[in-house]
Automatic annotation (TrEMBL):
Keyword field: Cytoplasm, Disulfide bond, Glycoprotein, Hydrolase, Lyase, Nuclease, Signal, Vacuole
EC nos: 4.6.1.19
Keyword Protein transport in annotation: no
Domain (RNase T2-like C-terminal) ranges: 291-394
Matching PROSITE patterns: RNASE_T2_1, RNASE_T2_2
Source lineage: Eukaryota, Fungi, Dikarya, Basidiomycota, Agaricomycotina
Family per similarity comment: Belongs to the RNase T2 family.
Protein known as: Ribonuclease T2-like
Originating organism: Somion occarium
Region feature (Disordered): 257-286
Length: 398
């Protein structure tokens, strides 16, 4: 399981041990950058007034997720997004802070500003229980998004299109949600939806703390779990700052025992995310090449290249396996993938997506390098999306 000293970077800032995997630059919306220093203060650390680089007064952030079953919304193997709320550091909160920026037509806004991938994910994972997705998104932005000091119009680059700060908000919420695979973390502990079984609050929170390092708050309705809140402070701007996870400062509404976790109707997701993909039940080849989604693939040392790809030996099942090459075991240390003698083997998994079998590390299909290789170049492979070139790695039987 993962360690407890964690931060999540949504921009190019340095990160500590990640909650699942580092979240890289907002690649879906490259035109917006906060310009804030990596040494910006963490929200709730002082009584300073809000600015473009210090979130206040709403410096206590809640990434809230739904588990809707009546009616059922979203994939059967994923929670869905409720929102990202800026509570004040004392537990109070502001709402509807700027009616002049209560934008409508969120889908068009996202599409017109280069965030169609974010919109596509929202259409499956940020959905309204009554099917009114547009109204839901509009509400989350106008009610909560307009209250962020770091998302004021003056905080986006001069000349940005109208609504650029809202597009940055939706990009950030989706990026953050992908690092919080609540369903997968519970499933790893044997806690899956059931029509008959009940759970204790301690069982659920212990499983989530074991996986993430932090304790969220859980809310129930009619004895059934229906919402979870993950708490953060933010260092710098919500646009591209560092999200610092913390234990929930208060408990939710769930009782201590007899908690129901009912199944959804519908279909599981096969969407590739940067966190929380569900292991495939398909067979894992014993010998395979790791092919990058952009160009080339991996060599025997675990480096990315466009040269002749190496053959990897995979030992285990799709839900848990180790890898090795002719050079030795493959492992991840300090976020870097290497293969060689003396390397401690790491555990990987695989997910099916778009007809491909993708390599997963710590719940993420995202891999990244400082640049894209050409000729005889070899690029170091990192987990997550904290470097310039992002890609996925397909497992192709050889």
């Amino acid at each position: 399981m993962l360690s407890v000293a964690l931060v999540i970077a949504l921009g190019g800032a340095a990160i500590a041990t990640p909650l699942t995997t580092p979240v890289g630059p907002l690649d879906l919306f490259k035109r917006v950058s906060s310009g804030c220093s990596a040494s910006s203060s963490v929200s709730c650390s002082s009584s300073a007034a809000g600015s473009c680089c210090f979130e206040a007064p709403g410096g206590l952030l809640l990434q809230t997720q739904f588990w809707d079953t009546n009616p059922s919304t979203g994939p059967t193997n994923s929670w869905t997004i409720h929102g990202l709320w800026p509570d004040n550091c004392d537990g109070t909160f502001e709402q509807n802070c700027d009616s002049s920026r209560a934008y409508t037509g969120i889908a068009n806004l996202l599409t017109s500003q280069g965030a169609s991938d974010t919109l596509s994910f929202m259409q499956t994972h940020w959905v309204d229980i009554n099917g009114q997705n547009e109204q839901f998104w509009e509400h989350e932005w106008s009610t909560h998004g307009t209250c962020y000091s770091t998302l004021e119009v003056s905080c986006v680059p001069s000349g940005s299109p109208r609504g650029a700060e809202a597009v940055a908000f939706f990009n950030t919420v989706v990026k953050l949600f992908k690092t919080l695979p609540t369903y997968d973390w519970l499933a790893q502990a044997g806690i899956t939806p059931s029509t008959s079984k009940t759970f204790t609050l301690a069982e659920i929170t212990s499983a989530l703390k074991s996986a993430s390092g932090f304790t969220p708050a859980l809310d129930c309705s009619g004895g059934a779990i229906n919402q979870i809140s993950w708490y953060f402070h933010v260092k710098g701007s919500v646009i591209d700052g560092t999200f610092v996870p913390i234990d929930a400062p208060k408990k939710g509404s769930c009782a201590s025992t007899g908690l129901k976790y009912p199944p959804k109707s519908g279909s599981p997701t096969s969407t590739t995310t940067s966190g929380g993909s569900t292991p495939t039940g398909g067979s894992l080849p014993s010998k395979a090449q790791l092919v990058a989604s952009t160009t080339g693939g991996l060599l025997t040392a675990g480096t990315w290249s466009v040269q002749t790809l190496a053959t990897y030996t995979l030992s285990g099942s799709a839900s848990s396996f180790t890898m090795s090459t002719s050079k030795g075991n493959c492992g991840v240390s300090s976020g870097q993938l290497t293969c060689g003698s003396g390397v401690t083997a790491s555990t990987f998994s695989a997910v099916s997506s778009g007809g491909k079998l993708l390599l997963v590390f710590s719940g993420s299909t995202a891999f990244t390098s400082d640049g894209t290789p050409s000729g005889t170049d070899q690029e170091t492979v990192f987990t997550g999306s904290s470097h310039a070139a992002d890609y996925t790695l397909s497992i192709v039987a050889s």
